[in-house]
Amino acid sequence: MATNAIDQTRRMLSLVTYLRERPGARVGDVARAFGITEDELIADLDILPMCGTSFRGGDLLDIDTDGDRIWWHNPDDVAEPLRLAADEATALLVAARAVATLPGLREGDRQALLRATAKLEAAAGEAAGASSRLSVTFESEGGVFADVDRAIAERRRLWLRYYSPARDELTEREVDPIRLFAVGHTYMEAWCRLSEARRTFRLDRVAEIKLLDAPADPPPVELRDLSEGLVQPAAEDPEVSIEVGPGGRWVAEYYPHDSAEELPDGGLRITLRTPDPASLRRLALRLGRDGRIVAPQALADSSRQAAEQALVAYGE
User: Fold this and answer.
1) Which of 31, 131, 147, 148 is the most buried (most CB within 10 A)?
2) How many Cα atoms occupy the beta-carbon half-sphere of 259 within 13 Å?
3) What pLDDT is attached to residue 2?
C-alpha cells in the first residue's frame, strides 16, 4: 500500500520513540511492529541520521544498523530539553505558517499544526515577533504536491495537464496516483488512464491539476526499487550509441549504460538503453559540440534537425 509523505513523517517520529526504548532492536521485529517491509525501514533509517535538534548540523540522531540490529548511540544527548535560538524559532514559525496554508492539507493535520505553532509562539517569546514579519509563498510545485498527497490519502483520481519535454507538448490525462517519491526532483508514480500503463510524472512539469470525485483504482503493481536511480533500463529497451568528447564524459556518470568505450581524443562511445529514445534529443542539444548521437540513424538525424532548427530560431 502506498504511503503518503505525512504518514511517513508520523511513522518516523514514532520510530524515534520506539528505538529509544529498545536498544539493539532487530530489523525484522521493528518492521513487523510498524507494518512495513525491511527495505522501507532501512530507507527510514537512512533519513533519520540527517535529523536532529539543531538547524546548524549538531545534535543529529546517531542511528545505524548492521542489517540485523539497530543501534542508537546518542539517545541521551538528543533527549536533553530543546532550547531554540532566535533564528531557529523564527525559521520554524515561518515554515509552520507556510505549510498550514498549503492547499490539499487535511483539516485535521492543519489544526494540529496550528496548535503546535501557537505553543511554539508562546515558548519563543520575542523571537515570535520577528517571524510574524516574514512569509513564504510556495511555487506551483508545492500546490501540486499537496494535491497529489491528498489524492493518495483519500484514494481519489487526478486530472492533469502535463508537459512532455520529449514531445514538447502538453497532454491532458486522468491518473490514479500510487506514491510520491524524490530522486533529485519530486515525482508521482501513477496508473495513467490515457496510456493504460504505469507512468512517472515530475511534479514541476504539471501545468494544471484537479482532484476528481472518481475513486482511484490502480491495478496491483509491484513498486519499483529506486535505490539504483529513477531510470532503470530493461534488456528489451532500444539501444542508443552516443559519442562524447572530453567535455561530455559526465554522461557516463549520470546515465545508466551498457558500455563506455574510450576514444582516441579522450572522449567516450557510450552505449545505453532507454524505453524512449526520443527523450535523448534534449541530451544531444545540451551536449552541443561535446557530443552527438550516432545510432540509431533516425534518432541521430532528428537530433541534428532539432539542433539546426534551434540555431535558426536564435538567428531570427
Assistant:
1) 148
2) 8
3) 46
Phi-psi region of 67 (alpha: psi -120 to 50; beta: other; left: phi over 0): left
The number of C-alpha atoms within 13 Å of 212 and in the hemisphere containing its C-beta is 14
Cα of 185 vs its chain's centroid, Å: 5
Q: Hey, what amino acid is at 223?
A: L
pTM, whole model, 2 decimals? Answer: 0.42
CA angle 130, 5, 7 (to 5 degrees): 105
Q: Which residues contact 138 (CB under 8 A, 6 or more apart)?
A: 98, 101, 102
Q: What integer is the mean pLDDT of 84-113?
A: 69
Grouping H, G, I as helix, E, B as strand and the rest as coil, residue 295 is strand
Instruction: Note the pLDDT tens digit of each residue in 51-84.
Output: 765 544 456 778 888 888 998 887 776 655 555 6
φ, ψ at 276 (rounded to 5°):
-135, 80
Instruction: Write out the three cell numbers for 165.
Output: 519535454
